[in-house]
Amino acid sequence: MKKFFLSIALVLFMFRTYADEGMWIPLLLGEQVYKDMVKKGLKLKPEQLYSINQSSIKDAIIIFGGGCTGEIVSDKGLIFTNHHCGYDAIANASTVEHNYLRDGFFAADMSKEIQSKISVRFLNRIEDVTDRVMKELGNTNGMERAQKLIAAQSSIVKEVVGGDEFKAAVVVSLFKGNQYFLYVYDVFKDVRLVGNPPESIGKFGGDTDNWEWPRHTGDFSVFRVYMSKDGKPANYSADNVPLKPKHFLPVSIKGFKDGDYSMIFGYPGSTNRYETSYGVKLSTDINNPVLVKLRDMRLKYMFSEMMKDPAIKLQLASSYASIANYWKFYDGETKQLLKYDIFGQKQNTETNFVAWAKGKAEYENIFSDYQKNYEAWRPYATQAVYMREGIMGSPLLAYAASWSGLEQVLSKKDASKEDIAKAINNAKVARENFLKDENKKSDQNILASVLMMYNTDIPKEQQPAGFYEDLFKRFNSIDESPYKRYAADVFENTMAFDGNKWNDFIANPTTAALQADAAYKTSMAFVKNWNVNYISKNQAFVNKNNDLGREYMKGLFEKEPAKMKGTYPDANFTMRVSYGNVKSYQPKDAVKYDFVCTLSGVAAKYVPGDYEFDLPAKFLDLYKAKDFGEYADAKYKDIIVTFITTNDITGGNSGSPVLNANGELIGLAFDGNYEALSHKLAFDKDLNRTICVDVRYVLWCIDKLGGAKHIVDELKLVK
Length: 719
Ligand code: ARG
Description:
Blueprint: H1 2-17, H2 29-32, H3 34-40, H4 46-49, E1 61-64, E2 68-72, E3 78-81, H5 83-93, H6 100-103, E4 105-106, E5 114-115, E6 120-128, H7 130-137, H8 142-161, E7 167-174, E8 179-188, E9 190-196, H9 199-202, H10 206-209, E10 221-227, E11 241-242, E12 251-252, E13 261-266, H11 277-306, H12 310-339, H13 342-357, H14 366-390, H15 395-401, H16 404-411, H17 417-437, H18 440-457, H19 467-475, H20 482-493, H21 499-507, H22 511-516, H23 518-533, H24 535-559, H25 561-565, E14 576-581, E15 585-588, E16 591-593, E17 596-598, H26 599-605, H27 617-624, E18 640-645, E19 657-659, E20 665-672, E21 690-694, H28 695-705, H29 709-713, E22 717-718
Parallel strand pairs: 12-22
Antiparallel strand pairs: 1-2, 1-6, 2-3, 3-10, 4-9, 5-9, 6-8, 7-8, 9-10, 10-11, 13-14, 13-19, 15-16, 17-18, 18-21, 19-20, 20-21
Helix pairs in contact: 5-12, 8-24, 11-12, 11-13, 11-14, 11-18, 14-18, 14-24, 15-23, 16-17, 18-20, 19-20
Arginine binds next to helix 10, helix 12 and strand 20.
């Protein structure tokens, strides 16, 4: 009886997992899912999706900056991506006087486009290099294997890239180290800001609405990629010309219905769908809550300074947004993992695996080994999060830690004059960058708090020896917290902020002077404690997990060959395709969410002067006049601002094109919904939704709100 119920549960679980789930490798679409895509509505031939011989959709998809996706939408290299992907570039282009972040910006013509630090990558080719990598790895395990892998990866990359600064390559692991693929890219480094809506549109709803549906954010920005006159990737030069792309996406303003086909190309960053119950439990018990608690504190101090002064708001905006984004994500992930008992679901899968593995020497101990590995690491997990999110969460301590490279050079007996000069020069540049972004007030508060929280949450025997004894000896006080006084002392005395002290040091750099610096001393107390006592434990834990994961996946391929052959590997920031439908959903009992949000909905959320829900006067005028141009939806008689689909995406996909059955752009993916925030570890076919900005809203913002019709005229519109 019990067994019967268990297998029913498993069948249901498998069914639940395999609906619009999947981040498919473009190269393998034909073998794996093309037929199903057609069944769902796709009208294109396989070679129109991905081809190496002719231009295809893949040629219009780019890696935008460090962690986003973008798409080419005109024959002059015009790029659409998210506002939050362009955010840092927009903030960098802004000053308090010309505040493009706050007020929006559209270049009147190409000469007014603004140079940025962003580079973009086009996928050149994909190659299966499993045999070669496996040969180099041999039968190794643990640290030895990890080191051999790094060596193998870098030798392949070197071979492919040589010294070409406009080429890039990565060798990535698939199925937890059971397969390796090489991806080769062309890198274009002249990317200019063409335009963006005001932040009140591009980030409308702020962190309150982030990761949630219904949603009313106009999350887009526009860039352009340039090439050299002779058609090659190039660094910025006034002589460069707009890129002539192999392919660009037509833009449909015809609209769509609930249930229509939708397809997303892009660069999902990471998922761990084969995470074990042990991993889930470590996340919900320790990793996520500790991260959330530390980010919560950092954000509060940053926010209170940002509210006082527009210059500080501009200075901290980008860093604040990225800390806040995953603060809310991990809080939501924990809640959803617990709510849907993902731990229990994973345990069921594991029980089933263990039963199958019985008597198979290669596999039968995998889960008892997992258990041992997690038990050994668990006592130190909080320390690890504290180092990353707490100690290194103080920008000053993170910056001071970078001086350890300098210390190494200075303490080398045979260091040449050039080596020292180079290290000093690097330190100078690093200091300038640090000071540009540094807000002392919030950072000092963060430091005081993190020192206090660390002392409360980390067991005495894991703390840096003598650190807190010294702190209390020097700064004990009944008036003010010793932590606050300690932090004040660090900020008062470090050479990081004191130009005279810094210049004295640079003129005569010694290890003794460095080691005496208050910020360096503080940072190193924690860093050394970590390096000496915990880093090897952490590496052992990670390497063992990698070995077990590889075995587990191999076992799954043996256990369920047909199913596994037809499946997709976890996201690893390589190009993937996801297909599904535009679709409404039911988030909870008695509640149904429509598949679109409208301009009227934006206006309804308007709160004058609010940090997150304010709107530009021009927006309100256009809305009142119902000046929708040709961008209104025929059925809704309103502008559709956002919509949702069942596509399987994750962070990194931000900015990805959402395409209809003909491969025409209908929107840009920019978020996931709260009810499915456990999606990195378990896809939920009923609740998972991708949140997209409707391209008709994008065009309305460019044309009507931004007065930049010439940009719309550059597109190939399908009406
Ligand atoms: N959650 C979005 C993503 O990760 C980013 C949204 C940015 N907005 C914000 N309020 N932080 O793609």
